[in-house]
Amino acid sequence: MRVRTLLPPAILSIALLAAGAASAAPVVGVDWTKAERVEVTLSNFAFTPRSLHLKAGQPYVLHFTNAGSGGHNFSAPEFFASAQYPSGVGPDGGVVDLHKGAVADVSLVPVAGQYKLKCSHFLHATRGMTGDIIVE
Description:
Elements: H1 2-22, E1 36-43, E2 46-48, E3 51-54, E4 60-66, E5 72-75, H2 77-82, E6 95-98, E7 103-108, E8 113-118, E9 130-135
């Protein structure tokens, strides 16, 4: 019986912790008019550039363009989870999805570290759609 009475509070605590982790305060004190624009092109099984080199604490606008013949994504969950955003919220699940011909902008301030990126569509990473992000 005791397990039943403790289980709902435990589930509620986990849910509240997860909700708190999913939201963050917007970054303040950043002049977004001085954000550096970085072009990232997704094509058939490649990212251009394959490696992104960014400076920690510097605001950026990552401009994604899907020039491929089908859908692709830019999946970098650890990178996006560590960054700060004007709204306080980054890409859902750390993934920017782009259908054929689509473009998207993500404004952020990155945190120092080395991060992996890939297209998580079926077999795209296996066919070479991978890269890295280096923030110094």
